[in-house]
Amino acid sequence: MLSMEIAKLEQECKYLREENEELREQFRKHFSDEPQLPMKCEACKFYLQHYIYSDGCYKKTNCGHCVHGKSLQERKPDDRKCKYFEVR
């Protein structure tokens, strides 16, 4: 009877170790050594920053647009609402 309980616990332990290893692997993939960029438009490859020419140089405006797809949507650099975000 005691040996059956030990066998159950060993089986459960084996299952938990396998599950733990899978979770560690997922964690490693998600949190790699690369710094995580915020999902802001300014970090997206589809964001095109707008500039103005003033006093002999170009200056950033607080405006730009998304060039993903056919529609050109106006965006702010710190917007986080676009579903097409991709890191540059």
Overview in brief:
This protein is of the alpha+beta class and 88 residues long. The chain has one helix at residues 2-30; strands at residues 47-54, 57-66, 73-75.
Kindly describe this structure.
The protein is α+β, with helices and mostly antiparallel strands and 88 residues long. It folds into 2 domains: 1-36; 41-75, no CATH class. The chain contains 1 helix and 3 strands. The longest helix has 29 residues, at 2-30. The protein starts with a helix and ends in a 13-residue tail after the last strand.
How many helical stretches? 1
Total domain units: 2
Radius of gyration: 25 Å
Main beta-sheet strand count, sense and barrel state:
3 strands, antiparallel
Distance between the termini: 61 Å
- Helix/strand/pairing category: alpha+beta
Number of strands: 3
**What is the helix fraction of residues, given as a range?**
25-40%
Averaged pLDDT = 85
* Largest sheet, spatial ordering of strands: 1-2-3
SSE series: HEEE
Regions with pLDDT < 50 over 5+ consecutive residues?
A: none
Strand content: 15-25%
Shape: rod-shaped
